[in-house]
Specification:
Largest sheet: none
CATH architecture: Orthogonal Bundle
CATH class: Mainly Alpha
Low-confidence stretches: none
Order of helices and strands: HHHHHHH
Structural class: mainly alpha
Shape: globular
Radius of gyration: 16 Å
Distance between the termini: 33 Å
Oligomer: single chain
Number of domains: 1
Strand content: under 5%
């Protein structure tokens, strides 16, 4: 059986995306893609567990993707991170963002940005297994069940 390519590898191949050193990306760029990756993980699990109306799915998803939850998750995960992962998180947390969350404190928003930067970094490094491990572990540590 042929080894299947990851979604990232398929996207790069299909659209002839050139290789870039992921460490060269700004932390806010990493957070931008990380936000989408984290969102798709949560939405996928919610949808796969129950075929429901979109507004019901949105309500279930929103508590997992809000800044407060992401901030709590990264706080719980800090002891689990490698030194490289912690450095990426801190770069994202400390990045000067020109936007703020509507319903989150500045501290939670910054931690959430750091979390999203870490997810984006791992995604662009094609380390899906690590992302899924961290998300599952973070949810378990917060005693949140999807």
């Amino acid at each position: 059986m042929a080894e299947s390519l990851s979604l990232l590898a398929k996207i790069k191949e299909t659209f002839a995306v050139k290789e870039v050193d992921v460490r060269a990306y700004s932390p806010l760029t990493l957070a931008y893609i990380g936000d989408a990756v984290y969102d798709i993980i949560i939405r996928t699990v919610v949808v796969e567990r129950a075929n429901q109306a979109a507004n019901v799915l949105h309500k279930k998803t929103s508590s997992y993707v809000k800044a407060q939850t992401q901030a709590a998750m990264i706080e719980a995960l800090l002891p689990e991170l490698t030194s490289d992962e912690e450095a990426v998180y801190k770069r994202g947390r400390n990045a000067k963002s020109y936007t703020t969350a509507k319903n989150a404190s500045i501290a939670d928003y910054r931690k959430a940005t750091g979390f999203e930067a870490l997810v984006g970094f791992l995604y662009l490094m094609d380390d899906t297994d690590r992302i899924l491990h961290l998300v599952k572990t973070g949810l378990a540590k917060l005693e949140m069940e999807l």
